[in-house]
Each structure stands twice: as structure tokens, then as C-alpha cells.
Amino acid sequence: MKTFLTTCLLITGICFTAHAGLYVQGGIGAGLNDGSISREDIYSDYKNSPVLSVSAGYELPVPFIEPRAEIEYLRIRPDAKNNLDSTFDGVFLNGYTNIPLIPFIDPYIGAGIGMSRFDHKNSTALQGMAGLEYGIPFLPITFSGEYRYMKVTETGGKWDSKSKFHTNTFMLKARYTF
Q1: pLDDT tens across 47-73, in order?
Q2: Could you tell me which residues come within 8 angstroms of residue 155 by beta carbon, excluding any fewer than 6 positions away?
Q3: Could you give the number of structural domains in the chain?
């Protein structure tokens, strides 16, 4: 009986995954950075910066809400005065769900958690996303505009620096579903 149930669950999982839509996605945007950094009694605020994103994931065939799960690489380079520049590199596990309210345009929300390298120190980062996407009819291409809030939970590292970093990001994204 256990073997039968295990086999049924395995077959169901394989069939469910076979109907899922694998996708790749890229995005570019602007980060409105908020926070500050100090090293050796030198203090500076972060300036706004470009944001780059690439991801791969699955869109599951669940009617109406169309959940997605993805792995994303995100890069932000917030400049600061007095040579206190930093780089944020993060890998996130994100989850999204659509909110079907408007024909042809799908609002969505999402959340993500990831590991980041910021200011020469590993830390955890959290993000929340909201946006609108438009799928081109008869093509597997989707464009979206997205807002996200991201916060690095623990920062500081090289040269005994102390830093607080969070950003409001506006992105344009393109997704190709296989």
C-alpha cells in the first residue's frame, strides 16, 4: 500500500511538473537607495543606483492565481561620497502570485528571501514586490513594470564599516516562457 501511494504521488508530481512553464527573465531598473555607511569616522549616505536582475523559474498551471517560483540574481551598486562605495550581489528565492482583476493586464504580488554579499560581508536580505504584467497574445513573452522594497538585514564588514541599506526599486522586466 505504501509503495502504491508513493508511486501515485510520484506520478502526480511528474505530471504536474511537466505542465509547468519554465521561464527566464531579465530586468533593469533604478534603485532609490536609503541608508548610510560609516568607516573610520567618515560618514556618507548612499546615492541612487542602477539595478540589474536575471532569473529562472516555473509558472505553475493553477487557474486564476498562476503562482510562480524563481531563483533570481540581483546586483545593485550604490555609490556613496568619500570613496565609501559598496556593491550588493544577492541570490533570492522568490514567490509570486497573480491577482486577476483586469483583462490582458495581470497585477501581481511577491516576496523573496535570499543571501547577499554587501560591503564585503554575507548577510540575509528580504524583499517584497508588486507589479503589472502584460503577456503578448500568441507569443510566450511577457513584459512587466515592478516596484520592490528590499532590506539587507545585517551589513558592515570590511574596514570595520557600519552600514544600513534598504532600497525602493522600480524595474522593467521581460520574461520568456518555454
Answers
A1: 788 899 999 999 988 888 889 999 999
A2: 118, 119, 121, 123, 162, 163, 164, 165
A3: 1
Return the amino acid letter for 162.
K
Residues 156, 118 contacting (CB under 8 angstroms): no
Degrees (nearest 5) of the Cα angle 94, 121, 25?
A: 25
Q: How is residue 138 written as a grid cell?
A: 500568441
The answer to whether residue 147 is domain-embedded is yes
Q: What is the rounded distance in angstroms from the CA atom of residue 78 to the CA atom of residue 88?
A: 8
SS3 93: strand
Domain membership of residue 7 (yes or no) is no
CATH number of 49's domain? 2.40.160.20
Q: Summarize pLDDT for 93-143 with one digit per residue, the tens.
A: 999 999 888 778 999 999 999 998 876 778 888 999 999 999 888 899 999
